Amino acid sequence: MDRRTFISGISVGLFAAPLAGEAQQAEKVVRVGWLSLVAPTSPEIQAQYGLFLRGMRDFGWVEGRNMVIEARLAGRQERFPEVAAELVRVGVDVIVAVSPLAVAAAKKATSTVPIVGVSMGDPVRTGLVTSLARPGGNVTGVANLRTALTGKWLELLKEIVPKITRVAVLANPANLDADDYVREVHQATRSWPAEVKFFNVANSQDLEPIFVEMSKWRPGGLLVIPDAMFWAYRAEIVNLAAKSRLPAVYWSTEYADVGGLVSYAPSVEDMIRRASVFVGKILKGAKPGDLPIEQPTRFELVVNLKTAKALGLTIPPSVLGRADEVIQ
């Protein structure tokens, strides 16, 4: 079964009806906050909620029976503090925060409510926790440490466009890991005979003008830095890259699903499953500061051959041979 079939198979609404025949029912009703940038309208987000709910059922927590999901969707990254504070006001028992900015906003809103971060970058570098082994405080979860993948993304870009002389990097300066990505990009391209230029976007409305500016610079390829806003507008970014005829490497498999050329990323499904385990343990009495933060162990390389053909590119066998999925 491939990834897409798996995702569609477990796609579940956020407020799915409880299943019959569940294991032991807990005595009290728990309230779980879900803090994210985007609404659960796409199949990918529906699948993530479905995985999380399945994981919670393994601990005996069933939505609609003994668990209430309080979903708060920011829409814009500037609203994270406001919606995080609202979750605290409604009295949730634990907050699941998806993205580094969501975790940071939740941590600022409360020092007592446990927070489980999903895909939260490098939480030690950004000061969210004191260490991965013993986070301390009220934050734990899954750190994707994507900054460490920067070199891998750029290697892929160079394999696909071996004669590249200019690399454009799309970044959000508000991202907690922004400075780390800048450093990693420069380090990874130190031996390249290529010029690198960052194009910063702090607002989704600036995407189109930035791509116009980028096209004038005439880069040979594009790297899109991980960011929740970029993920929310991934279809627009992929379309703008296609219009600019830019070979691009992305940090999330969902980019390839909407036409992105190549993506290499930790498995989101694995991170969501692990998040439910963290929440389950906390609701059973574990302290978040005592739960070591985990790192991804499964990564996926997806290649979109349809996009490669449209760009007039031939994906080298060295890349195709490593691909977990090839979109024809």
List keywords for this structure.
alpha/beta; 2 domains; 38% helix; 7-stranded mixed β-sheet; Rossmann fold; 5-stranded parallel β-sheet; single chain; 12 strands; elongated
Please outline the helices and strands.
Blueprint: H1 3-10, E1 30-36, H2 43-58, E2 67-73, H3 80-89, E3 94-98, H4 100-109, E4 115-118, E5 139-142, H5 150-160, E6 166-171, H6 178-188, E7 195-200, H7 207-217, E8 221-224, H8 228-232, H9 234-243, E9 248-250, H10 253-257, E10 262-266, H11 268-283, E11 299-304, H12 305-310, H13 317-320, E12 325-327
Parallel strand pairs: 1-2, 1-3, 3-4, 4-5, 6-7, 6-8, 8-9, 9-10, 11-12
Antiparallel strand pairs: 10-11
Describe the 3D structure.
The chain is an alpha/beta fold and 328 residues long. It is 38% helix and 18% strand. The chain has 13 helices and twelve strands. The strands form two sheets. A seven-stranded mixed sheet has the order 7-6-8-9-10-11-12, sandwiched between helices. Strands 2-1-3-4-5 form a five-stranded parallel sheet, sandwiched between helices. The chain starts with a helix and ends with a strand.
Q: How much of the sequence is in beta strands?
A: 15-25%
Radius of gyration from CA coordinates: 20 Å
Mean pLDDT: 88
Report the CATH superfamily of the largest domain: Response regulator
Q: Could you name the CATH topology of the largest domain?
A: Rossmann fold
CATH class of the largest domain: Alpha Beta
Uncertain segments of ≥5 residues (pLDDT<50)?
Answer: 4-26
Give the H and E element order.
HEHEHEHEEHEHEHEHHEHEHEHHE
* Shape-level CATH architecture of the largest domain: 3-Layer(aba) Sandwich
Q: Care to count the β-strands? A: 12
Largest sheet at a glance?
7 strands, mixed
Widest sheet: strand ordering: 7-6-8-9-10-11-12
How many individual domains? 2
Q: How many helical stretches?
A: 13
Which structural category do the helix and sheet elements fall into? alpha/beta
Shape: elongated
Helix content: 25-40%
- Report how far apart the termini are: 17 Å
